[in-house]
Amino acid sequence: MNEEINHFAGDNDPDRMLQKKKYRTPDGVPADIVMFTLTKRERKTVTKTLPIRELKVMLIKRKSWPFAGKWALPGGFCQENESIYDAAKRELMEETGVDGGHLEYLGVYSRPGRDPRGWIISHAFFALVEEWMLEHRQATDDAEEVGLFTIEEALYKLELGFDHRTIIEDAYRRIQEQMLQTTIARQFLPRHFTLSELYQVIQSVVPDFEEPNFIRKITSTRSRKGIIEEVRDEEGNPLSSNQYSQRPAQLYRFTDLRPRLSIYT
Amino acid sequence: MNEEINHFAGDNDPDRMLQKKKYRTPDGVPADIVMFTLTKRERKTVTKTLPIRELKVMLIKRKSWPFAGKWALPGGFCQENESIYDAAKRELMEETGVDGGHLEYLGVYSRPGRDPRGWIISHAFFALVEEWMLEHRQATDDAEEVGLFTIEEALYKLELGFDHRTIIEDAYRRIQEQMLQTTIARQFLPRHFTLSELYQVIQSVVPDFEEPNFIRKITSTRSRKGIIEEVRDEEGNPLSSNQYSQRPAQLYRFTDLRPRLSIYT
DNA sequence: GTAATAGTGTCTGTTAGACATTATCGA
DNA sequence: TCGATAATGTCTAACAGACACTATTAC
């Protein structure tokens, strides 16, 4: 607490303060974004089937010092007239050309020496975007190379700049947690979806999620059925889709309900 | 991304960079700590009974500009040679004189104009400390007034400086979430505790947690009994305590197990 | 028909939730 | 003895988990 009191050396005039600082201040506060997307790839089979989905992370290849030639997270410096979240939103907009999507704060990375340019405190976010949103950038901005990588590639095969490997690890842990504890799965699904699609989305983010009775459980237990609901047309007939299967499957959508989880209940 | 590239204007020498920055940088990056404690008050009854527990938050009364005379969270500025977490730990140590305790990152507060001293980006933490740890400060540091308040007092009765009301709201939400989803209850309990004590601790942080069959549920269901275990002596006899009741109650301790929660399972 | 995915029937053992009952000890 | 808290008994309905079975469509 004493630091705070003395930091500005008793000067009570905010306008003159900036010239009188006694302590070193950070050299920059960027927002870095771990952009996740779920790629869809058609399977070449005879009959209808679900596309293969795979979780990917978007990285850029740096052109200048530091870490030139290495892969890193997209990011940009925060400015005085915006919050860190604003900076992240702006950055996301610049990368995708789209305003929407899920953007969530991940944490702060401030280990001394993490950035050779000086005292740079980075704020990490993760975003869930659709695959087509990333094509925007590849088309409009040819200054830097853009790549989509699986988590394994990003973590174990690529040389990453800064402490971005740590950030991606943390982001991966967090998206897995959120996938099971919230309804962010909706970000990777159309508004109406089948339960197989939902199950597949969950599994592509959390590979060891296995629930043999998934459909039964989510539709027939009082405590869980609330988070999704059947889609019906104007007359109240259930809507179904046979886009991915011979037999049509019931369509569902997420409700606004969010159950409260507890280890004790 | 372009910001990042241009930020240092192509200068590749880190030593000279600080003099050549073209953009304004933050004026300070403090760590503010929401210190929670659970006070224990003996009940004056004839027979043995559990003490009354109440969640409190520790605030200090500011002596100087800005917000002189208002209550605020304890905090201190982060220095160049430490991480934000280090700064928070240092601050916690200064306030309590103790090194341990639970300290967890809460988030960043960076709304422009939030601090009249300039561009100040605050990082909030929350800590769980024992009541006696706060007496240290009251004894050794008489420069500023220290107070322990209930959440209701802090949020609705006090005039708080900065955006600290928002921070306390967020911290309260978070500690409630963590109380139900993790085993942070252990921070407020002795190493060995009775199930009534555990139940009471949970309830004092999450008042609307009600589980009439709490004891039954936590001891007899396979999925939940793993997080705690009975305490036994060397011969394997169960240990119990009649500190708070006539009939002795079985003592338990937390295990290291942490169940994975999911809205789908 | 066959293949492929959607969805239900059925069975057993476990859990939830409510309420009554017994246990242990101090005063 | 009574009073207070700890812990178990008991009963019904709901749920979990496994596996077999039926349903709907494309080809």
TrEMBL record, chains A, B:
Organism superkingdom: Bacteria
Matching Pfam families: NUDIX, WHD_NrtR
Coiled-coil portions: none
Assigned keywords, A-Z: Hydrolase
CDD domains, per database record: NUDIX_NadM_like
Nudix hydrolase domain boundaries: 42-172
Molecular functions (GO terms): hydrolase activity
Listed Gene3D superfamilies: Nucleoside Triphosphate Pyrophosphohydrolase, Winged helix-like DNA-binding domain superfamily/Winged helix DNA-binding domain
Family of the protein in this entry: Belongs to the Nudix hydrolase family.
Name by which UniProt lists this protein: NUDIX hydrolase
Species the sequence originates in: Paenibacillus gallinarum
